[in-house]
Amino acid sequence: MERRQHYLFTHKYLRDLFHQNPNLFFEQMRSEQGGTYLAQFWQNTAEEFELDNLDIVDATGLNIDYREAADYGLVIILLPPPRISPEACFIGVWANYSNAYRGRDSFRYFTLELKEDVDSVSSQLGESETHMLCEWTADSKHLNSGEIGPTLSGFVRAIEALVMPQDDSKDALDSDRRTQYLYKSNHEFKPITTEQAPISHNNTATVFDGMFKPPTISIQANPVKIAGSGCCEVTPDGLRIQGFKQTAQLGSTQLAIAFLVVFFIGHFIGGMIGWGMKAAGVGLLYSASKGQGTDHKGEKIDLLIPWENVAKASFNKASDVVTIQVANFEFRRSTTRKVNCFFTHLSIPMDC
């Protein structure tokens, strides 16, 4: 069988890449570097499956379109003209923004495939319903939703009918209206291959959403901790953090009095015991000032950090911690002072 690159790209390589990390794949495809990634993935397919010249397909026609409506997004990958069933003319990656980090139903992978070998010219002109709307699920099931014509508008409408609630049907997908990227437009991802892990130091996937215990938001030199379990939600407008601000175990006056009492008693006693009491006083001051409060103790925190304020993100493999540096963000509305802060939490996604 010739032309294997076309089939393997849609039904093997890209499908598996998508299901490894749907969110990362979606963000790569709709970013300004989407075309670069796509071309790299096309080349990776030939290299990974060690295809010979008979199996290589010209990439002419490979392109990306992007549509949005309400709380949904659809990345459409336009493929080189198909000739042999089940080659596809389109791939559609659907995302529900509100639930984008809460389960597999938030992302879906559709294809528009040739039903049987046909004249590629007539099929592209939409002269007959020779294509099948199909879907690859996360558990590798290949679902068939029926025949439609090979037009981009028909493909979009067919996906809408499958995934959009009835009350959203009036808000058709709009190619001219786009929300902000979840990453800054100049955020550089390196093209990934199936051999690379979904998350690496150079490829920071969106693992922000879920439970964390506890995070730290550092405003300049003053840390603000959120007690116990909190919730972090990725939204189109920014990173939303909810929890409770920890209060210090002792107030500043109480800390000063306690430290002086322990220090002078230690100085009076002298010797090793005295030095031990002085060290204990320093330890008391340090631990109490770090805000070791209890869950739901202190001021309630509800932050929305806009994506344009996310300066950089890094991933620590050893501790499974993501650190997000936030620049020029006003922590309190009552102040106009611009600050830098860091947001850190465990990178294990869970439902809030």
How would you characterize the overall build of this protein?
Residues 120-127, 175-228, 290-297 and 328-352 have low confidence and may be disordered. This protein folds into 3 domains: 4-168, no CATH class; 210-247 and 294-346, PH-domain like; 261-287, no CATH class. The longest helix has 19 residues, at 271-289. It has helices at residues 4-20, 22-30, 34-48, 120-124, 152-163, 252-269, 271-289; strands at residues 63-69, 72-78, 88-96, 107-114, 131-136, 142-148, 210-212, 216-219, 222-225, 230-235, 238-244, 300-306, 310-316, 321-329, 339-346. A hairpin with a 2-residue loop joins strand 10 (230-235) and strand 11. Helix 1 (4-20) crosses helix 2 (22-30) and helix 1 packs across helix 3. It is an alpha+beta fold and 352 residues long. It contains 7 helices and 15 strands.
